[in-house]
Design brief:
Elements (H helix, E strand, L loop, with lengths): L5 E5 L4 E7 L5 E8 H10 L4 E5 L4 H10 L3 E5 L1 H4 L9 H12 L12 H32 L12 H9 L7 H34 L1 H6 L7 H10 L9 H8 L3 E3 L8 E4 L5 H19 L7 H9 L2 H22 L13
Parallel strand pairs: 1-4, 4-5
Antiparallel strand pairs: 1-2, 2-3, 6-7
């Protein structure tokens, strides 16, 4: 039997499909293992390269298999799909994972530590709470609108809605008033939970060195800086700042052919958490730059003369991503752009 050089694993909750292949690609074994059997099998198997799709449990198994001495490679699922032969099943998926991992130009996902995954849980929980609070606020606005009370969007107008609910002369029936008070209590509860999660993220950001360094850049706050440390791989994996911006999905979509370059809208084919936070921070910088009498960045000033604010914010977010790459690669704080002055 030939020596196994790579094992492709199709992960699942209870049943795992493994595909062992030799250096020349010849199939050595195909096995379907239960969860306990898979752990025992991989701990007893000689150290080799193990490839898996980057699914939610992949980072946990990457840490487990690395402790057994294996070299783990995680692959984005959309890079595996073109390698699957005809019918899709667990055995075909495991074989395709092993074959995709052997390609010399394949891109791999950096396994996350337990601390990174813990911070990712906090980010996901914060995002869910924000969505739930927004849903509750919009529901309250809709309920009151049915009785002729109109309020603008946003959490800042909750006190106005609360006054309408508590006002005996607002024309609300008792049943509707009681239900609206329950919605207000739900909004208050979600707001307190959001503040608690944000405080934990801010504390984690203050305790880490990289977020403190990134916060020297305008538009990058503690949440954005911590998101970069949580979700982004080591910056030495990117050759230049543009590659990091492309990884975030902040570059134009290409439709180039025949030597003619055609660029479209922003691709948004990347890490959505960091991208969304960078765009939000860039929009805050743009709003500040549009204020009368505020000192302005020459590059941003020229951009705002030609483009709408939102387009300028996306361009600034791209520039911020490149700056983050440069700051982390060269271990430097943010430096303001030098303004050329006429002699």
């Amino acid at each position: 039997m030939e020596e196994v050089t790579i094992i492709g694993v199709d992960l699942a909750k209870n049943v795992f499909q493994v595909h062992g292949a030799a250096a020349d690609g010849e199939v050595v074994f195909r096995k379907k293992l239960a969860r306990p059997q898979f752990a025992r099998f991989m701990s007893d198997h000689p150290a080799c390269e193990v490839a898996m799709e980057a699914c939610p449990s992949a980072h946990h198994w990457a840490r487990e298999l690395s402790a057994y001495g294996h070299s783990v490679r995680l692959i984005a699922p959309h890079y595996v799909k073109p390698v699957i032969k005809r019918q899709k099943n667990d055995a075909a998926d495991a074989e395709a994972i092993a074959e995709a991992a052997t390609r010399p130009t394949m891109r791999f996902v950096e396994p996350k530590t337990a601390e990174q995954q813990a911070r990712a849980v906090a980010f996901r929980a914060r995002e869910q709470i924000v969505k739930q609070r927004t849903e509750a606020i919009n529901a309250l606005r809709a309920h009151l609108f049915e009785f002729g009370h109109v309020a603008p969007e946003g959490v800042g107008y909750i006190p106005r809605l609360a006054k309408v609910v508590d006002d005996p002369g607002s024309g609300l029936p008792d049943l509707a008033r009681d239900i609206c008070r329950m919605v207000l209590e739900q909004i208050e509860l979600l707001t307190s939970r959001l503040a608690a999660v944000s405080a934990k993220l801010a504390a984690a950001s203050r305790a880490a060195a990289i977020p403190r360094q990134l916060q020297t850049m305008p538009g990058v706050g503690p949440i954005t800086a911590l998101a970069v440390e949580t979700f982004a791989p080591p910056m030495d994996q990117f050759r230049r700042g543009r590659d990091f911006a492309a990884w975030l999905g902040l570059v134009p979509r290409q439709h180039s052919s025949g030597g003619k370059q055609r660029l479209g809208k922003t691709s948004k084919m990347g890490q959505r958490d960091i991208r969304r936070l960078l765009v939000t921070g860039a929009m805050a910088v743009v709003r500040w730059a549009l204020r009368r009498g505020a000192p302005q960045n020459p590059w941003l000033e020229r951009m705002l003369e030609r483009k709408p604010p939102l387009v300028a914010a996306f361009a600034l977010a791209n520039k911020m991503a490149r700056g983050i790459w440069a700051m982390l690669t060269h271990d430097e704080d943010y430096r303001d752009p030098v303004i050329a002055c006429a002699a």
